[in-house]
Design goal:
By secondary structure, the protein is α+β, with helices and mostly antiparallel strands. The chain has 19 helices and nine strands. Strand 1 and strand 2 form a beta hairpin.
């Protein structure tokens, strides 16, 4: 049977029209609901700049947030390929989503495939059914009481950091790498009960795995892009981009550590002990199947959140202090006063008493939030308060943290580093949703206290004996790497450190 050229032409055109219709059939979703937003294009929707790696997610959302077309709108509708996603700008509505009507948005909406990336089956990603009981069981590890008990471990790591810095006096250093090594050692001992030794061992496996997680190599980038923007395709071909080395490292480490503690009757009352007790008494956690991989996933997210976000905050803070000597010297005076009151020792109470340090850390997180975006997914049909807009079950919500915290409406001269934005009076005068670096509501950051404390200890230990300053290699403009899943500087953070003990 043969076809004429006309029939072939008609067939091809029909297929093209069919594909076009399939790719654009949902593009009326926001318009039909009266929601403003940019016009999507086939295949890419509104995220071509993300897929082509022109912008990071935080910068992309800031561009939409700042666009004059939607400057006064409460929300904007976009499409990630063909999926409708709502960007919320209004702080009252954000508070409703995160807190008041949390039950409608208890899912984070993260895309992951347990068979492809088993250790992504962790607390941050889990749907609400499994998240709720697991969060309740893990919360006791992150109380202020537990943090006080672990504080001596942070101090031990800080002492190792002090020794490590001795060889860099008067030199230019990669502050991101130094901070990452310190926080890796902290997480190693506090989560796994193991000495990571990344400050003294360049071949430390913990540090190698940390770099692997946030790699910018092609395979890692494809895995992230597929998971985020093409989940349907990711389910089919994601296995070709899986990182089995990473999975095996954390699963084997978790299993071996728990077995060793059980066989030798070792109890440290830390994170891994809690996981071990949950596995031995599964009735404690409802009907969740606590496999070795599931337990390893919880340690994996603690490792990621514990070392990367804290090390980023440390290095970003020191960058700002290197550019603002008046602030740096004022903080050093506060540090000296507290050390003098504690016989030269860094104490839990001393860190808590450093109010100016706390303001500096919060201003660092305001200007450089490691996680630039919050995502939620509706678990039932929901009508946005004060509007006629109803979104169906499964609609994703994006909250642009980076854009909000750089909005001059809430933070005048947002590019200026000003710790006094976080004095008591200023905080009370602002909307509580204007600062979301730790999230808010029931799904806020479970390790916020721990992360803040290890960041402060690291900064105090460095500034106790050293001054930091910018140099010719410092990127003072902090150009953002568009490939980073978190807020990452394109050109690193290079500073000169000089041994100048506080007098």
């Amino acid at each position: 049977m043969s076809f004429s050229s006309v029939e072939i032409f008609i067939g091809v055109v029909s297929i093209i029209i069919g594909i076009y219709y399939y790719l654009t059939a949902n593009f009326n979703f926001w318009k039909s609901r009266g929601v403003p937003g940019p016009k999507p294009i086939p295949i890419f929707g509104n995220i071509y700049d993300l897929i082509s790696i022109k912008y990071s997610i935080g910068c992309y959302l800031k561009n939409i947030y700042d666009n004059n077309y939607w400057r006064n709108e409460k929300f904007v509708g976009i499409f990630t390929t063909s999926e409708p996603v709502l960007i919320i700008k209004d702080l009252d509505l954000i508070k409703t989503v995160l807190i008041k009507d949390f039950n409608f948005f208890s899912d984070r909406g993260a895309e992951f495939n347990e068979s492809v990336e088993p250790i992504n089956n962790h607390l941050f990603n889990l749907e609400s059914k499994r998240w709720r009981p697991l969060r309740a069981k893990l919360t006791p590890v992150f109380t202020s009481g537990k943090l006080r008990e672990m504080f001596y471990l942070l101090n031990e790591c800080a002492d190792q950091l002090d020794e490590y810095l001795n060889k860099f006096n008067g030199k230019i250093v990669d502050m991101r790498e130094i901070s990452a090594r310190f926080t890796t050692d902290v997480i190693g001992v506090c989560a796994f009960g193991l000495q990571a030794n990344s400050l003294v061992d360049d071949d430390c496996m913990f540090r190698k795995m940390g770099k692997r997680i946030f790699s910018f190599e092609f395979k890692a980038m494809m895995r992230h892009r597929l998971r985020s923007f093409a989940p349907f395709l990711y389910n089919y071909i994601g296995k070709y981009f899986a990182d089995n080395v990473l999975d095996d490292f954390f699963v084997n480490l978790t299993v071996d550590t728990m077995n060793y503690r059980r066989d030798n009757n070792i109890n440290r009352h830390d994170f891994i002990d809690l996981l071990k007790s949950l596995k031995e008494e599964p009735s404690k956690i409802d009907d969740i199947e606590l496999t070795d991989t599931m337990l390893a996933a919880q340690l994996f997210i603690f490792f990621i959140a514990g070392f990367e976000t804290s090390s980023s905050t440390m290095s970003n803070c020191l960058l700002e202090l290197g550019m603002n000597h008046q602030l740096r010297d004022k903080l050093r005076r506060e540090i000296k006063n507290e050390l003098d009151n504690a016989d030269g020792k860094i104490t839990y109470e001393g860190i808590k008493n450093m109010k100016y340090l706390d303001k500096i850390i919060k201003e660092t997180l305001r200007k450089y939030p490691p996680l630039t975006t919050l995502m939620r997914k509706s678990t039932a049909p929901y009508t946005l308060p004060g509007t006629n807009v109803t979104i169906p079950t499964g609609t994703k919500i994006l909250i642009p943290i980076y854009a909000i915290q750089r909005d001059p409406t809430y933070f005048p001269n947002p590019n200026e580093f000003d710790p006094e934005r976080f004095n008591d009076e200023a905080v009370k005068s602002r909307h509580p949703m204007s600062f979301l670096s730790f999230g808010d509501g029931p799904r806020n950051c479970i390790g916020a206290r721990f992360g803040s404390m290890q960041t402060k200890v690291g900064i105090v230990k460095i500034l106790e004996k050293y001054t930091v300053d910018i140099c010719d290699k410092t990127d003072k403009d902090f150009k953002i790497n568009p490939r980073g899943a978190l807020l990452t500087p394109q050109n690193g953070i290079y500073l000169k450190i000089t041994k100048t003990p506080i007098v």
